[in-house]
Amino acid sequence: MRIVQCSITHFRGIESGTITIPDHGVVFGPNNVGKSTVIEALALALGREQMAQPLTDWDFWGGEPKPDSRATIICTISHFAQDARPEDFPDWFSGERSARPVWWDETSNAVKIDADCPKHCILAAQIAFCIRYEEDSADFEFIRYFYDGPGDPFTTDCRMVPNSVLQELGVFILPGNRQWDKLLSFGSSSFLKVLKASGAIPGSTIDKLKMELRNPQNKIEDDPSIAAVIKSAEQELQQFLMFKDKAEIAYRPTMLDSRSVMQSLIPHVLHSTFLLPFSRHGAGMNSLQAFLIVLAFAEQRKQKGKNFILIAEEPELHLHPALHARLANRIRALSQQSLVTTHSPFLASSYKPEAAIFVRNDAGILEASFLRTEPVASIQKHAIRNLYLRSRESLYSALMGSSVIIPEGESDARWLTLLQRMVESTAEEGVEGSLSIIPTLAASVVDTFEEIYRFRHDALPLIDGDPAGDSYKSRLTALNSPPQRLVQYANETAVEGLGTWILEPCLSNPGPVLADLLTGQPATSKNLFKAICKEKSNIELQENLIWEASANVVSLERAKSFVDDLCRIAAGEKPTNKGWAIARESRTDVYTATHICKP
Amino acid sequence: MNAVPKPTVITGPAGTGKTTRMMELVGALAPTALSDLGYQSVLVITHMHGARRRLEGLIHKVHPDLNVTVTTIHAFALGLLNRWRLALDISYPIMATEDAGGLLEKYGVVYATFDELISKAKELSQFSSVKNFISSTYPLIVIDEVQDCSKDELELIDALTSCSHCVLAADEFQDLLGGDAGCAFAGWLVLRKHKESVNHEELVLPRRTSDIGILDAARALRTNVAASGRNIAKFWAPKEPLLAWKIVELVLSTSARGRTVALIVPSLQGVDRIVDSVDRQLAKRLKRSGKLKWLRTTSAEYEKAIIYKELGICTIPSSEWKPRPESSLSPSGLLIQNRAIRLAQLRGVTTLTMEFVAGVVQGTLHANRAHSTRSGRYEITTIHGAKNREFDYVFVLWNYKVIGTEEKRRRLLYNAITRARVSCTLLVQRAKASEVINDSVLGLLGAITALPQKKASAANKTRKK
């Protein structure tokens, strides 16, 4: 059984939106787009646990719920079994309180509501979760029911979903904010749940432990240093209590009932020579705990042939990036279905584009689309295929960024990256935003833009000022969905002009690398330009030059200004440098960097 | 789906034990029909809520451990429709209404008349998913009073017979609602018997009563052949007090101690006069306040009319409705008014219209009927309301308001008389003797005694004759 689709209406920051959920998928997108809202929605609708946080006004779209406001989440469940028919699953579809069978069309990712199964569709059920606000008591009411159609479940009849159905579905949520050191302790309800489900509560050992604790070998009250004080206290006690028997005071490590004994047990890790409690370990160690439980639980369910669906927020927290992919693999191996949200390009890139969902939120309308719907091997254009194969991590990383730049080719991308790094590591105040650079292949900026536009309407192409660049510009502005904005270097100028502009201030006092580059020639901009053009593919040289230039205040200032201006332009704001000329070509605003020109 | 057994049909005159036989069959068939998994139940379908409640009580008494769902045919259709409404291109939940339906969506719900409910449910019953649902949820279906089914309802029931094992109980002669086309059930049964696709049990032995008088009278009305002997006690008078005296006589007699007494009337109009007269006469005789507690099963129409008047609901559906001052309302009126205001708030309805509030009234009254269980020693009920019921002593008030074809009047009288277990008394109210003698239906029962004036009370003297 898997969740195939989730529709969200008027819940938190989502006015409406539908997300199709694959077998094992990753959800990513820029910040604040609704990724964790999707997770919360699934958790509310299908999670069995009591809600961790009480409902508030903010769970309603607009944050000001009225008596008739409703936040609704509808989940479609399918893949019951091969050739499943409703009669085969009576606890879902038979009986008065059951769900009405609907049908899932895998090719169009749509729910069909015919009474009988249409061709090529499979059996599905829909569970809805609805919240309303009660003005009089400032309280919230929610209901989980089998969905028959639109309508208010609070004022019309509906059939509630029994707990047994949810248990069968086996959805396990791992929320973003996790309490680390509590997870493997007996005080944790999740841990106890896993133990109970596996019949693994160590009852007899707890009993033995209780006995030991009742009568320990070393009794504090017998220690000679404290004995006198205890004795006088006992005498006082005797006077007040009027017991017939003597009242003796005893100290024990914990209250001696089973529950207290269990809760007093603190998990430690036994290293080869010493014992260190979990809470004293680093966050990374603790975050692994969360997964130890989850994976153990998953293994349990698998062995019993039960369903297990894992929904996790940022499982990569506190984990070394090298482990992210491994984590994703383990999750996929042990669950029937898994859905994770992430900020880690490493984790995301371990998922194929057909399983990666990019999420956008346009004033409340949530759009969730798979990166690709057909296998990557079938992509015709090499440049695009490259994005998803070789450069997948950079692509995913760029898609998650705030300002997305599409340069003309690899050398442009390289220079920009160097500049960015230069600014980030040396500037004192740092830059307002940061650039996410798409790894464009040579001569494919238009194709690349078209592909990136599917996810980021605000992607900013960066074009050379040469004739080739002009032709790209005309092609871009002529597209059905052209870029909102576009950046171009001055006339006849390519990215080498940018390099020259940055390094120019160093000419007055060149460092060794720069001097070496200009060997035998006067230190003029023109010569610098020619030298850079000659060493177009010398990556190491470019790095060294930039690194050396970071010591120069003016160079740094120019680099900062350029990166900053690109960020501003990408966000639709005005750049600060006076050298920018803005013109409108068709539906695109073209920003020309007249200050960066071939000397 | 396994092969569904042929439906079993139980027919027989009133009082021959159809309901009892139905219970027997349920007891016999349910253990094999229902699996151990708790989601299945026996479905019992009736027409009216009164019958529904009583049948439910009976089943719980006779088969306390059985999973049973007792519902009316309209509630069943509504449930089915709401579950599958998207397949019929209906979005919002459906609500039954006595006014204009048309499956129009208003105020967040879709309004449908009872007939529309049945018609749409029929459409649904063609789909195999729906059939599978019915047969796996209700492997055994029992339907009572099938003679009251309209053509559409019968087609729906026919569809049910192909899903589950059905047990139908009917008496054609008790069809009070049938139009000129006659009872749809009769034709259906003939067809089925011809195709040998039904198990037909005909009950003949009278079980409700052993009183020869009642049996003779019933037979006379049923066969349209005049009764030979005295049969039941019959009296006529132009005015109520004389007729009321007969009721008083019984109430005062020792034989009626602890027994149920029913006053069955064709319509509730004018019944108050006879009840008041009974009370006055009792008071005189017992020298104390002799008011009897009569349990009145008020008609739905009557109840609704009262509330409509209280809440000021007029006939223009879309005009705006304003709440009434609370002090002017009865408890139920106030409850319904508050409910309407609250519902509007929850549904985001800003202007309350007449039709919206009317819907709330109907829904509340309907729900009350569905759930209240009241019975008393002394009951006043219409003939419709008395269907499928029995009482120890029955007084049938046959007043000049009874209209209809001769066949219809025979059936009405038959239905009324056959409610009695111990004895039945017919009280005819006519202005002149000629009206009594010329009545062909009454004629079947033989001579009717004219009630003399009372010597004891001068006030009861009739002015004429």
Structure description:
- In chain A, strand 14 and strand 15 (365-370) form a beta hairpin.
- In chain A, helix 4 packs parallel to helix 8, helix 13 (410-426) runs parallel beside helix 19 and helix 16 (495-503) packs across helix 18 (525-534).
- Chain A is an alpha/beta fold and 599 residues long.
- Chain A is built from 20 helices and 21 strands.
- Among the domains of chain A are: 2-21 and 51-162, no CATH class; 380-593, no CATH class.
- With 465 residues, chain B is α/β, with parallel strands linked by helices.
- Helices cover 42% and strands 17% of the residues of chain B.
- Chain B contains 16 helices and 16 strands.
- Chain B has helices spanning 18-33, 49-62, 73-83, 114-124, 128-137, 151-161, 184-194, 212-223, 240-252, 271-286, 300-311, 331-347, 354-371, 406-417, 433-437, 440-443; strands at residues 8-11, 42-46, 68-72, 94-96, 104-106, 109-112, 140-143, 165-170, 199-202, 233-237, 261-265, 294-296, 378-382, 391-399, 420-429, 449-450.
- Chain B has a 7-stranded parallel β-sheet with strand order 12-13-11-14-15-10-16, sandwiched between helices.
How is the secondary structure organized here?
The complex is a heterodimer of chains A (599) and B (465).
Chain A: E1 2-11, E2 14-20, E3 24-28, H1 35-46, E4 71-78, H2 90-93, E5 102-105, E6 110-112, E7 122-134, E8 139-146, H3 163-169, E9 171-174, H4 189-197, H5 203-214, H6 224-241, H7 258-263, E10 268-270, E11 275-277, H8 283-303, E12 309-313, H9 321-334, E13 337-341, H10 345-349, E14 356-362, E15 365-370, H11 382-388, H12 392-400, E16 403-407, H13 410-426, E17 435-437, H14 445-453, E18 460-463, H15 467-477, E19 485-489, H16 495-503, H17 512-517, H18 525-534, H19 539-549, H20 553-570, E20 580-585, E21 588-593
Parallel strand pairs in A: 2-15, 3-13, 3-14, 9-12, 12-13, 16-17, 16-18, 18-19, 19-21
Antiparallel strand pairs in A: 1-2, 1-4, 4-7, 5-6, 5-7, 7-8, 10-11, 14-15, 20-21
Chain B: E1 8-11, H1 18-33, E2 42-46, H2 49-62, E3 68-72, H3 73-83, E4 94-96, E5 104-106, E6 109-112, H4 114-124, H5 128-137, E7 140-143, H6 151-161, E8 165-170, H7 184-194, E9 199-202, H8 212-223, E10 233-237, H9 240-252, E11 261-265, H10 271-286, E12 294-296, H11 300-311, H12 331-347, H13 354-371, E13 378-382, E14 391-399, H14 406-417, E15 420-429, H15 433-437, H16 440-443, E16 449-450
Parallel strand pairs in B: 1-8, 1-9, 2-3, 2-7, 4-6, 7-8, 10-15, 10-16, 11-13, 11-14, 12-13, 14-15
Antiparallel strand pairs in B: 5-6
Helix pairs in contact in B: 3-4, 4-6, 8-14, 9-10, 11-13, 12-13
